Amino acid sequence: MKRFLFLPAVAAAAAVAFAAPGARTIVETDAYRWQGDTLYQDEFKAWAVSPYEIRSTYKGRPHYFMPVEQTWKRKNDLSAYPRLTTPNRLHQAVFNMGLDEMVNAVEPDTTLRTGKEWAGVWTRDVSYSIILSMAVLQPEASMISLMKKVNPSGQIIQDTGSGGAWPVSTDRMVWVLAAWEIYKVTGSREWLEKVYPIAVRSIAKDDATVRSERGLVKGETSFIDWREQSYPRWMQTADISQSEAMGTNVMYAAALKAVGEMARILGHKAEAESYFKESAKLAEAIDRTFYVDRLGLWGMYTYGRDAMIVNPRAETLGLALSILYDIAPEKRQKQFSENKPTTPYGPAIFFPQISDMPSYHNNALWPFVASYWTLAQAKAGNEDGVVEGIGSVVRPAALFATNKENFNLDNGDYFTELNSSNMLWSLSGNLALTMKILFGLHYEADGLLIKPFVPEAFRGERSLDNISYRGATLNISVRGYGCNVASMTLNGKPLAPGELIPAKKLRGTCDIVVEMDNKPIPVMGIRATANKKAPLTPVAWLEDGNLVWNPIEYIAEYVVLQDGHEVGHTRRTSWPVGRQSGVWQVYGVSAEGIPGFASEPRSTRRRARFEFSGEGDAMESPEISYPARESLDGSHRGFVEIDRTSAPAKAVIRVDAPGEYTLAFRYANGNGPVNTENKCCVRAVFVDGVKAGTAVMPTRGVANWPDWGMSNTVRLPLSAGEHTVELRYLPEDENMNISTNHALVDCVVVEHAL
Question: What's the pLDDT at 142?
Answer without folding.
Answer: 98
